Amino acid sequence: MLSTALVGATAAVTAAPAAAVGDFYRPPASYSATPGSVIRTAATPLLLQTPGLPNQWPGNAKKMMYTSTLQNGKPTAVTGYVVEPTAPWQGKGPRPTVVIGPGTVGQGDQCAGSKMLALPMSLDPFKPSIGVNYAGLEMHLLLLNGVRVAVTDYVGMATPGVHTYVNRVESGRAMLDAARAALTISKAPEDAPVAFSGYSQGGGAAASAAELAQDYAPDVNVKATYAGAPPADLSKVIDQIDGTFIAGGIGYAINGLQARYPALTPILRKELTAQGRQVLANAATQCIGDTGLAAGFQRSAQWTRDGKPLSAVIARRPEVQQMLDDQRIGRLKPNAPVLISTGVHDDVIPTGQVKQLYRDWRAQGADVQLTTSYIPPIVPGLVVNHALPMLQFLLPGTSFILGEFHR
């Protein structure tokens, strides 16, 4: 609730240790606890731009660190970036802002999108690690239309602590607070139009922001949300990706849960083998490409002591079921129109739980639409049927948001 989020809003958070000189991603010794407060910014070039020259196409980018709120109500520092387009806004009123929630990039700090602004991907041969910044496609499309773009790195990505992957509350709040920070940095009116967009992990973050906005950020003037392939019910998603190329991504979710639910640690110690524990440890420092190469196509039954899949472990552990249920999206009502997309043959995000999210929101009277991809199965398990709908819905999702801005 808003009252919880704003506890101590006028106070300062103390973070130790203090930031080292030149270390953008380590929070300062103290900063404002008010959600959406700007902690620091730094100008940075985009792909093919010359460093130091202002007003280059497609816009002027700044990395940002801002305040958000953890699941337990405590303030935290989150990073991301905001891009002011060089193209003019042709619609009525002030320039709108779209906050993009990136899809799954990994859990290691090196995977943060704000660290890859000048490149479509990053390669660290010494780690080794491969990172991909695929928020760029949507970002450039919006910038061409004169729309300001903000992108969050999410809680714990690049900043101290564990990235709480697909945590419903923390990802949604990170999106909402990125909007607040972006408006401040750009000196835009506080009531300037805002929309949220994302696919996969980002679709879940966008969906969470949409339904948390009314209570957590009533000051944000939300006009629309596009939520592509949102993981609204993690209990269904875990089963779906088990055995696929990104099976190790289950480790991201478990690591994130363990960071917020200490009771999960002894359960994992009892249920997992040494191999299973190693998969989790590796995932915590990997980008998605690294995880695919290291644990691709493994079955979670290989990680458990009894040789049964993690879904079976969850089924006999009510306390774990509750942890996953806490992440369920769809129990709150969005306060602005939403477009949801799904692929009937998506091999990562089950279409059934996406459609359930649609039904849950419709039952509450939300203004929500559902669009579906019928691309036939293409080598199931290689996540092709997850990636292709992302591209298929890029233009419709953007058009939906622009249409709501122009109303």
From TrEMBL:
<dbReference type="Pfam" id="PF03583">
    <property type="entry name" value="LIP"/>
</dbReference>
<keyword id="KW-0378">Hydrolase</keyword>
<protein>
    <submittedName>
        <fullName>Alpha/beta fold hydrolase</fullName>
    </submittedName>
</protein>
<dbReference type="InterPro" id="IPR005152">
    <property type="entry name" value="Lipase_secreted"/>
</dbReference>
<keyword id="KW-0732">Signal</keyword>
<dbReference type="InterPro" id="IPR029058">
    <property type="entry name" value="AB_hydrolase_fold"/>
</dbReference>
<dbReference type="GO" id="GO:0016787">
    <property type="term" value="F:hydrolase activity"/>
</dbReference>
<feature type="signal peptide">
    <location>
        <begin position="1"/>
        <end position="20"/>
    </location>
</feature>
